Amino acid sequence: MVAMSKMGVAGLFFVEPGVKVNGKCYRDVLLSQQMLPDIRHVADDSFVFQQDSAPAHRARDTIELLQRETADFISPESYGPQQSDLNGVDYTIWRIMQQRV
């Protein structure tokens, strides 16, 4: 997983092979312990959090956490899954990485 913004890249986060990224893992480990602290280090609280509509991202408890812990959150229901202009990681970063590999 990766967090990016115009202020810089907050981090590239890896999940150990075999780990199932369900809602609890995503919230308790990836978001709370890694991504949100890293993002705040880069952008303080001046960021908008947006993610795709993966099941762990859509979980009710995940949405509640992000609404509570971020200043501005775009929920998965607010955009279509194939909108490349709102999903820079899937349509830009991964394409560049694939080309380089």
Beta strand %: 5-15%
Quick check: average pLDDT? 80
- Kindly report how far apart the N and C termini lie: 17 Å
Total number of distinct structural domains: 1
How many helices in DSSP terms? 4
Describe this structure in words.
With 101 residues, the protein is an alpha+beta fold. The chain has one domain (2-100). The protein has helices spanning 23-43, 55-58, 60-69, 88-100, and strands spanning 2-5, 8-12, 48-50, 72-74. The chain has a two-stranded antiparallel sheet with strand order 1-2. Strands 3-4 form a two-stranded parallel sheet. A hairpin with a 2-residue loop joins strand 1 and strand 2. Helix 1 (23-43) packs parallel to helix 3. The longest helix is centred in the N-terminal third of the chain and has 21 residues, at 23-43. The chain starts with a strand and ends with a helix. The model has no long low-confidence stretch (mean pLDDT 80).
What topology does this entry show?
Layout: E1 2-5, E2 8-12, H1 23-43, E3 48-50, H2 55-58, H3 60-69, E4 72-74, H4 88-100
Parallel strand pairs: 3-4
Antiparallel strand pairs: 1-2
Kindly summarize this structure in a few lines.
With 101 residues, this protein is an alpha+beta fold.
Quick tags:
single chain; 101 residues; alpha+beta; two-stranded parallel sheet; 48% helix; globular
